[in-house]
Amino acid sequence: TKDVRTFAGFVGHVANAEFGYCARVKGEANPNKQDFEKVAGKAALVAGIKAAVAYCDAVYKMQTDATLSEMISMGQSQQPRGQVLVQNISHSNEHYGNLVTYMRIKGLVPPSTERATAPRPGGR
User: Fold this and answer.
1) How far apart are CA 9 and CA 38, in angstroms?
2) Which of 5, 39, 47, 97 has the smallest number of Cβ neighbours within 10 A?
3) pLDDT tens readout for residues 11-47
4) 56 Cβ neighbours under 8 A, 6+ residues apart
């Protein structure tokens, strides 16, 4: 309905958020200047989410025990850098749940279900 995001809108929203959370953790201005939630076209959305994930992957990889404990500004509060990364994961997982509903409505098996139900080597 017009009251909820489209599938593409959710993908774009997650791309925007990944850039936002990870830029905050990295301590730099958000490198993304495009609002992926308003992007039309699958190719552009796929490129956007891939870029967001790659950017965050680099931010996660640069963390140490010490950096994860450092306090950073998040809105009106200070939070450990690691907590902001956990919020990013939680946010992405929440919206994956939204997308699973959309996939099931269209008769598609979500990737997480497909992996969980795939036959395992050795019959287990």
Assistant:
1) 7
2) 97
3) 999 999 999 999 999 999 999 999 999 998 999 999 9
4) 18, 19, 21, 22, 88
Please calculate the CA angle 105-117-98 and round it to the nearest 5 degrees.
35
Evaluate the CA torsion angle 102, 43, 60, 113 in order and state its sign. Answer: positive
Please say whether the beta carbons of 15 and 49 come within 8 A: yes
Query: Which residue is listed with tokens 């870029």?
Result: 51
Average pLDDT across the chain, whole number: 93
User: Is the pLDDT at 124 greater than 70, yes or no?
Assistant: no
Burial 37-51 (b: 16+ CB within 10 A, else e): bebeeeeebeebbeb
Number of H helices, E strands in the chain: 5, 2
At residue 20, what is the residue type? G
Q: What is the pLDDT of residues 60-79, one digit of tens each?
A: 999 999 999 999 998 899 99
Residue 43, token pair as written in the block: 């190719």
- CB–CB of 94/44 below 8 Å? no
